[in-house]
């Protein structure tokens, strides 16, 4: 079995080693291919930089990777990296794509904009099982907690517990509080919050230019959502399905 590990924090993020180590211990052959620089907010973009008509890829070791793991820096958005991997761009097509572990939570409907989740959704649209993992901190201190949760959900994804669920058509989005393992309350399956941990405010300045400002949302307004549970010390897991065609409403035809 093969696993591709990517992220949107870039090739220099220590979160890559967390997921690579978990995949190795689960029995996967691991390749790391991550953006050459941070790609936060890239969503499922397929943007990339070419050199002489070829996607710009160079060998570069991510920090803390176990010995023997091949690692590449790619001048591309995370979703494009997953897309390329699905067509054998980094060796044989992977059986699993892991994205993260991201610095900062990816919760609520705002995951639409996340490069971390976008990479996992890109893999899913190609029939590849995928997992996105994020840590609720700008500079995480407890990567071992993220590893603990990742080991648990990977065991579920690979075991009998998921056999009745077509995981090749779903993405598992996991968020982990940045606390020591003994202070983690556990793992809860959670619905998406209305938006997420950050929202945008737009207004015009005196010269009629649009000004975009970001601010934190009220974390406690939806206590049973992924945002609310994460705030209270739970790791959260949310199964995502996309793209999704809603056939419950009939659109009238022409004529």
Folded structure, characterized:
The chain is α/β, with parallel strands linked by helices and 255 residues long. The protein has helices spanning 15-25, 78-86, 115-125, 143-158, 226-231; strands at 2-6, 29-35, 50-51, 54-55, 57-59, 70-74, 96-103, 129-136, 171-177, 187-189, 198-204, 210-216, 235-240. The relative contact order is 0.15.
In short:
With 255 residues, the chain is α/β, with parallel strands linked by helices.
Keywords, please?
13 strands, single chain, 255 residues, alpha/beta, 5 helices
Q: What structural class do you assign from the helix and strand content?
A: alpha/beta
Which geometry do the CA atoms define? globular
Tally the helices.
5
How many strands in all? 13
Topology:
Layout: E1 2-6, H1 15-25, E2 29-35, E3 50-51, E4 54-55, E5 57-59, E6 70-74, H2 78-86, E7 96-103, H3 115-125, E8 129-136, H4 143-158, E9 171-177, E10 187-189, E11 198-204, E12 210-216, H5 226-231, E13 235-240
Parallel strand pairs: 1-2, 1-7, 2-6, 7-8, 8-9, 10-13
Antiparallel strand pairs: 3-4, 5-6, 9-13, 11-12
Helix pairs in contact: 1-4, 2-3
